[in-house]
Amino acid sequence: MKAKDFYNVAVYLRLSRDDEPEGSSAESNSIRSQRDMIRSFVQRQDDMEIYDIYTDDGWSGANFDRPSFKRMMEDIEAGYVDCVIVKDLSRFGRDYIEAGRLIQKTFPAFSVRFIALNDNFDSLTADFNEKTLVLPVKNFVNDAYCSDISKKVKSHQKVKREKGDFIGAFAVYGYRKDPKNSNRLLVDAYAAGIVKKIFTCKIAGLSNLAIAEKLEEMGILSPLEYKKLHEEKFSTGFATRVRAKWSAVAVRRILTNELYTGMMVQGKHEKVSHKVKRSVEKPKEEWVRVADTHEAIVSAEDFETVQKLLEVDTRASAGNAGCHMFTGFLFCGDCGEPMVRRVNRYKGTERVYFICPTRNKGIGCTRHSIAEEKLKHLILAGIEQQLALFMDKNHVLAQIQKMAVKFDGLAAFDKEIQKLHEEQQKYVSLRAGLCEDLKNGIITEEDVRDFGQIYETQYQGAEDAIRRQEKARCELFKAGVAAGAKLEKMKSTPELTELNRDILVTFVSRIFVYEDKRMFLELRAKDMFAKTLTPADYFESRENVPNNGAGNKGGILT
């Protein structure tokens, strides 16, 4: 490259929080420090003048997709700039291959001189060794440093995820970050109320689109607009209008977010590389899930119900606000396909019935036709029968209420924990007796060390077992109380006189209809009842608990 009489200089400055984690280094590499150094250098040159200063503050050097860098390249291509000066090669970029291509090919092609002050590199005066050996090595070191920083950041984030710390940039709609601890979520009362309304509407039978339209009619701000209202610096690729509106996609995103149950779910995506912004979705089994990290907005049971409803078509028919009562519940007992509703109108009368649709598709299943009124009657009778069985469990409910005020009621766990404590005390006594045996010449000092280590290991093993037992006891207690609360709710349910969707959602999981008009109800209550019986088995009065097997059938055949 031939020297020019005069150079129009582009001063390029860059700083990333990941570049220099140490305070002193960060200060030395600050934008102001870089700018002052380069200005001082240019002022001492008679053949140079600053054309413009290009600053990328807060941008990583892992790639060259930076706004000011792009603007500088446009000025170079336009012929406005013929010299680029940076503090050092790491400020220019940390991508080994791309940095080398720009310095050794692109800049020479546009007759652009490149200077890195702290690295003592000047493309005009650099010899062969500096261009082919020193420069590539320094760029490679910078690239390796960036890769190392990326690995450390990922490792740190993994530890925080596994602890249940929230590491997202923004809290999900319905929550806000704790002002005192940004890794903890607090419930946003207003937005949480909207989330509850969305789940309630879905359980009631409304489609995602119907819910979105209802929220718009009520004048409720969408999650994006709500964030803007609270002056959060939030942007998304989903926004396509001046004012973002509720959509079926936004509603579904809320309905499928397990975080609303108190379960922290993170690590769903990961970057392809520290040099590439694009992320890929990870398999569900690799997601990091930590329970009870924050207050739940919806119950786990309601969330599970909604997930099942999302698997079926809940679009409303023309002129209706919601789907039909049995949508998402009624299935063919033979082929498992969702049954469809048919209306037969003849001479002013209307007959509603349900059929299996697979026969019309030529798959071979029969129609399994059943009239709506008969179906309602059978289901109502089945629920009433099962509910009566649950209501006879007064003894179990009484025991659950005792559990709520006396945590130590789980006698079996208490006995096991007591035995473990006694075992620990035995090892303490044995270890204490070693010194006496040593004095009496029964054992040697080496024996004291060996047996002492054995007793310590056994003691710690018992300690770990105690912690596991206490954790299991706590989980069993919580499951029992939750189940008891559900049964109390069922007990307070007024006498059933008419079937509706709310009753179905509360008591029924699925309904199977067979060709001979037989019907099988898969009840939600079976899980509640099973959880209630489990802690009850640990009470001394266990033999007095009635057991008619209702919780083990899993349903009722009518």
Structure report:
With 558 residues, the protein is an alpha/beta fold. It contains 18 helices and 18 strands. The strands form six sheets. The chain has a five-stranded mixed β-sheet with strand order 2-1-3-4-5, sandwiched between helices. The protein has a four-stranded mixed β-sheet with strand order 12-16-17-18. Strands 13-14-15 form a three-stranded antiparallel β-sheet. β4 and β5 form a beta hairpin. α13 packs across α15. The longest helix is centred in the last third of the chain and has 47 residues, at 445-491. It is flat, with a radius of gyration of 35 Å. 28% of the residues are buried. The model is unreliable at 20-28, 237-241, 402-409 and 529-554 (pLDDT under 50).
Low-confidence stretches: 20-28, 237-241, 402-409, 529-554
Multimeric status of the protein: single chain
Class inferred from helices and paired strands: alpha/beta
Strand content: 15-25%
What Rg, in angstroms, do the CA atoms define? 35 Å
Q: What percentage of residues falls in helices of 4 or more residues? A: 40-55%
Question: How are the SSEs placed, and which strands pair?
Answer:
Layout: E1 7-15, H1 23-28, H2 31-43, E2 48-57, H3 67-77, E3 83-86, H4 89-92, H5 96-109, E4 113-116, E5 121-122, H6 128-163, E6 175-178, E7 181-187, H7 189-203, H8 208-217, H9 223-229, H10 248-255, E8 264-266, E9 269-273, E10 276-281, E11 288-290, H11 300-310, E12 330-332, E13 340-346, E14 349-355, E15 370-371, H12 372-391, H13 394-405, H14 411-439, H15 445-491, H16 501-507, E16 508-513, E17 519-523, H17 525-536, H18 550-553, E18 555-557
Parallel strand pairs: 1-2, 1-3, 3-4, 12-16
Antiparallel strand pairs: 4-5, 6-7, 8-11, 9-10, 13-14, 14-15, 16-17, 17-18
